[in-house]
Amino acid sequence: MKERVLVTGGAGFIGSHVCEQLRRQGRAVVVLDDLSTGHRSNLDGLEVEFVQGSITDAAVVQRAMQGVRKVVHLAALPSVARSLERPLDTHHACATGTATVLHSAAANKARVVYAGSSSAYGNQDVLHKHEGLREDPLSPYAAAKLAGELYCRSFARVYGLGVVVTRFFNVFGPRQPADSPYSGVVAAFCRSLLAGKPVRIDGDGQQARDFTYVEDVVQGVLRCLDSDHGGCETVNLAYGQSTTVRDLYDRLAAMAARVPGAGPQPAPILAPPRAGDVRHSLAATERAKDRFGFVPTVGFAEGLQRTFDWYRQQAGKS
To answer: Which partner for 141 in 83, 122, 243, 312 could form a disulfide, CB atoms 3.0-4.6 Å apart?
Structure first.
């Protein structure tokens, strides 16, 4: 009998890549998604069992959990900016939803990998954000995602649940939404550059991020999922490589300039800094390597080129 894995948020950007890799490995996949931010089309061509519903609905979660022994919990309401506008919705999805998933997982003795966020670190004096730091969330989104982590720790202690909290750092890649005010910066930049429109840079562009290609993140998630670590582990999944937003723009603008027929690129629009944004985000990666054997194989430069090429292909279809 094939191992059944539940992927919450499986119709989303990262979730669909997780499902794709699980199916390549021959595993049965159950997707639970309310399609509030994901798209059913992200799973086109994949043989998965799809359950449409919210992770805050205990009955729906329990139905999706039937026969499942491993869970990749990705469902959330992402975006710092959105959380400033809708803090209660963000809390409900990220905190209450996570508690609901963990409760069902504990009843089914299922192992869980929880998608945490590097936003938990906030602004700290140390350069590399390591897992031993005290958290300092700066936004409702960061606080809600950290609340999910705290539920993971408590469920591991009280119910003996095996959990790995994976803190993501600015994941990018194909299928990341590019047409929303809450879009990730790589997706938004690619869309604007390919359309010949000016890119918006919030602040001075010197804020730095540990941009991580989705294929490498998925590899790390599955390593955590298949490990035999007990209790609750917390681990960064990133490159340990810092890139400023301005440097990101320059790299993508150079790719856009090489597209045949490309015209002159409009100058970026400089906007005020966004509330709740972390200034510098750079991961310490030793724990991921030592405990889970996480060694990225694609890397930032190659991942960025693949991502730009994907958006270019999508632009050609429209």
So the answer is: 83
